[in-house]
Design brief:
Helix content: 25-40%
Shape: globular
Distance between the termini: 60 Å
Number of helices: 19
Strand content: 15-25%
Strand order of the largest sheet: 3-5-1-12-9-10-11
Length: 726
């Protein structure tokens, strides 16, 4: 049925990357270009008194920008406008940007940064999540709460009296750094009168455009954002590029010159967003035959100093907190709390890895209390077709979680070894009414440019995950063309429609479906005009396009998102169809614990997932392998260390420990192809689910090996010593 989909075609951007032709932002230069840096606070909370500039320095050579130079609103516009572009009076975290400097000599510029001293009157700060929850010091709003949700199904309070067992547990997860290969960086040109153009490493060009429109009080046609080749993102380049783009643009406007602003690794790690730390409390009612009766869950995340994306991270974490289990009574209370640490933001999984870790660890504890094996307890409680999730979404997928688990256990020889597993689901696309709110649009156009016959126009970015390749595959098969007949336009707000952000496992399923629909409409235009007939060849298609454009003008087709039929969501009650589709997975980890060094080693890992139709088998496998590797780091070694002022002190790759190739086992990746009717060729999301399962699977195995309860990650050797000695 498919000629290109399902085939391991060469990556669209692969040749340019391996030959060095790919142009990253720091490869670009412009006549008269100067460099920029940021002067930041060093204390977590206080009132700015003044900025002092060393007297023996040639400040007349420098461009200096403060909040007073902002022509529009001093806020990085996102969901709520609480984060200033530059602090004017209040300091709320120890990396708060206050002053911007620019100069042609970037080495002299670094000396200048050291020559600026911020005088700040300190105020009491809240650094730890527990302090924020306690509310002894209020640093945001009335009670330090950015956002809260209450999700209810059935009657939890009445269920306790019918339970044979009530099991409680508390679980914690730490922050995690995205650690993309390429640091944040942008180049800005323009002025507030004629308009701005920004080139940068980013995931979401239209987010950056929205932010700059607010800061410079400009209409969209005067703010052009162009994504350059981007060396990884993992969520860390979702909203933060708006900040660095605004800083470069302010310097460009004041200097009248192009400004390049590139973070080094230390600044990037210290100042930009991280995965939200979390605390989760579970109270679970179970019958004597091992059936779930009630789940009462309290889920709290640390959002840092400003709201950024915490509300949507909290939303996804809340919805996934009850997992793939059928339970008649569920109550999930969740909060995103403020602390005086750098703002937290998006990271692959977007809240689900935190709540799924707690859930899957707790399910093992519940199974033990009831006297069942972990796999048998889960089999008795898996969601099946027709069951409802915690949001009362009816499961319409043809999914057999017990069979998925059986296959994963068989592939791993589970019953012959000391191994543990996690089974979970992950919603694809924006939560609830998010996709309808976005109204994402994709377009395709016929071209007359040599071999290229059709160009795909989307704002979805290539950040190493294969966007250009899979969208080309979808377009080629839909149009009956060769893979090399398709080109993906560079994401540029002046030239491509807003297909939404490159996040939330939505690029393939949501944007891919829009591309498929736009291609179908373009083909129908040719057929209805009498220029294209059944059984056409690529050459005949090109001829039909040429004839159409000669007769009618440009041939371009658009497609705007429409929800699948029957999908309903109630934002007020937080009930209904949270996602159009779920991906499902069962992961099995085999670990060993060195009782001399207390190091945890993952010896084998089996990752089985149902992500609908697999568009590109090599890229899909790579997505899973990369996610599992990040999950191993999340579970065993990636600890962000904060000092008493809320500053990250291990902000180098020498002391922020991540798994190397020697630490990652052979990751055995398998797929169950269960096509989804409303995805392109039946595809669902794949980008985030690989990070959900490794941590609970690994911790379940460690607990089984050492015979001690382990309820937090990362579980580093220092912690393991204390647990075993206790």
């Amino acid at each position: 049925m498919y000629k290109v989909i399902g085939q391991p075609v060469l990556r669209k951007e692969g040749r340019d990357k391996v030959t060095g032709r790919a142009q990253y932002v720091d490869d670009l230069t412009f006549p008269g270009l100067i460099h920029g840096v940021t002067v930041r606070s060093e204390i977590p909370r206080g009132k700015i008194v003044r900025a002092e500039f060393a007297r023996d320095f040639p400040w007349n050579e420098f461009i200096i920008v403060t909040a007073a130079d902002i022509p529009g609103k001093n806020a990085v516009s996102l969901i709520i406008d609480d984060q200033p572009c530059l602090a004017e009076q209040d300091i709320n975290h120890a990396e708060e940007p206050v002053v911007l400097l620019a100069h042609p000599d970037k080495y002299l510029l670094e000396r200048a940064r050291q020559a600026v001293r911020l005088i700040v009157e300190p105020l009491p700060a809240v650094i730890a999540l527990d302090e924020s929850i306690a509310g002894t010091e209020i640093v945001w709003g009335k009670d330090n709460t950015f956002k809260s949700y209450l999700l209810k199904k059935g009657d939890v309070d009445r269920a306790w009296s019918t339970a044979d067992y009530i099991i409680e547990g508390e679980y914690e997860t730490g922050a995690q750094e995205q650690l993309y290969i390429e640091n944040n960086g942008v180049i800005a040109i323009g002025n507030a009168r004629e308009g701005l153009t920004v080139w940068g490493s980013m995931q979401c060009p239209y987010y950056v455009q929205k932010a700059l429109m607010t800061i410079f009080d400009l209409p969209p046609e005067k703010v052009r954002i162009i994504q350059t080749e981007t060396g990884g993102g993992f969520g860390g380049k979702e909203e933060y590029p708006s900040m660095i783009a605004a800083h470069a643009a302010l310097l460009a406007c004041k200097s009248g010159k192009p400004v390049k602003l590139i973070y080094d690794r230390a600044e990037d790690m210290a100042a930009t967003t991280k995965r939200h730390p979390s605390k989760t409390h579970h109270r679970t009612a179970v019958s004597k035959d091992g059936k779930l009766l009630a789940m009462d869950i309290d889920f709290v995340i640390d959002g840092g100093a400003y709201a950024t994306l915490s509300s949507v991270v909290l939303s996804r974490g809340t919805i996934h907190a009850a997992g793939p289990y059928s339970c008649p009574n569920v109550r999930i209370r969740s909060r995103a709390m403020a602390t005086n640490t750098p703002p937290k933001g998006a990271f692959r999984g977007f809240g689900a890895p935190q709540s799924i870790f707690a859930l899957e660890r707790h399910m093992n504890r519940v199974a033990a209390a009831v006297g069942l094996s972990p796999e048998e307890f889960r089999r008795r409680n898996f969601l099946q077709g027709g069951d409802t999730t915690a949001t009362s979404q009816v499961i319409r997928d043809n999914v057999d979680l017990a069979a998925l688990l059986d296959r994963a256990l068989g592939l791993s020889s589970y019953h012959d070894k000391k191994q543990k597993f996690a089974e979970f689901m992950h919603g694809a696309g924006f939560t609830g009414s998010g996709e309808q709110y976005l109204k994402s649009t994709a377009a395709v156009e016929a071209t007359n440019e040599g071999r290229i016959r059709v160009r795909v126009l989307v704002a979805s970015t290539e950040i190493g995950q294969g966007t250009q390749t899979i969208l080309s595959q979808i377009a080629a098969d839909t149009l009956g063309l060769d893979y090399n007949d398709i080109e993906i336009a560079q994401p540029d707000t002046a030239n491509v429609p807003n297909s939404g952000p490159t996040v939330a496992s939505r690029t393939c399923m949501i944007v891919g479906k829009l591309v498929e629909s736009a291609c179908t409409a373009l083909k129908q235009s040719l057929v209805h005009s009498g220029l294209l007939f059944a059984g056409y060849t690529p050459t005949e298609f090109a001829g039909a396009c040429a004839a159409y454009t000669a007769k009618f003008g440009a041939l371009r087709s658009f497609s705007e998102y429409e929800p699948p039929p029957g999908v309903q969501w109630d934002d007020e009650r937080y009930q209904g169809d949270a996602y159009g589709a779920f991906s499902w997975a069962a992961y099995v980890a085999e670990v060993s614990v060195d009782m001399t060094t207390y190091e945890i080693r993952v010896d084998d890992f089996v990752a089985l997932q149902d992500v609908g139709r697999v568009i590109h088998p090599v890229l899909a496998k790579g997505q899973v392998e990369g996610g599992v590797a990040q999950g191993i780091g999340y579970a065993t070694c990636e600890r962000v260390v904060w000092n008493s002022d809320g500053r990250m002190v291990n902000n180098q790759m020498t002391n922020y420990v991540i798994p190397t190739s020697m630490d990652v086992p052979s990751i055995r990746v398998y797929f169950e192809e269960n096509p989804y009717s409303y995805g392109p060729a039946g595809a669902k999301g794949i980008g985030e689910i690989p990070l959900d399962g490794p941590a609970p699977a690994i911790l379940n195995a460690v607990e089984d090996a050492i015979g001690r309860r382990v309820d937090h990650i990362p579980l580093v050797p220092e912690d393991l010593v204390k647990i075993i000695d206790a």
